[in-house]
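Let us work through a complete example step by step.
Step 1: write down the sequence.
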Amino acid sequence: MRQSGSILIVALWALFFLGALAVSVGTRAAAGIRVAEHVKLVSRLNHVARAGVAQGIAAARSGNEEIMSGEASEYWSRANDSVAGGVFDVYSVVQAGDLGVVTNFGIISEGTKTNINNMVQVRSLLETVAEGASAALIEENIREYRKAKKTLTKGRSNGRFESIYELLLVDGVTGDLFESIEPVITIFSSDCYSGTAVARFSAPSGDEDEPMPERQIKFVYDSKKQTIVYWEQ
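Step 2: predict the structure and record it as tokens.
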């Protein structure tokens, strides 16, 4: 009788162990499936975002009149059409695809912005956003910065800015001032178009606290050279 009881206890412990093992394996399998689905979704979003870039480039190549419409050369004429943090007053498209994926892309001519390597344009911008004395001082500091850079780099860049964020290295350009002009300044020529392509998965995940994955690509396309000169994702 005692032997039968011992066998029963061992059997119960075995069942408990197997049950716990099954739960553990099931949990890991479910987690693995979720990870695989996430990887698959991110891959899909990446392809959709790249397709958005291709559509943006096609829009630039088409010579769409909207790209140079109105008084777009003035920075204060920007419309409040926001695409992934960028503002586009010329061309913005939202396209719904299958499987709940939405592509959102916008593009704008860099020629509508102030080229910080063009001192005539810089002076005009500074006179608008800064007081007279400050504007003149910052303009002079920019000239001194470029002169020093040309010397230090032995003329490699001819003292030109190679990034808009380089402007923050100039004395007098505060964070607040830069933030106010960042959307409207560029280092690219008027042949270039900047754009942002975003792919978002819009279907509900069932978990409101879980952020929906997205893929965002920023690019600058040179229509004259027909090549992408800047790419960030």
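Step 3: interpret the result. The two ends are 72 Å apart (CA to CA).
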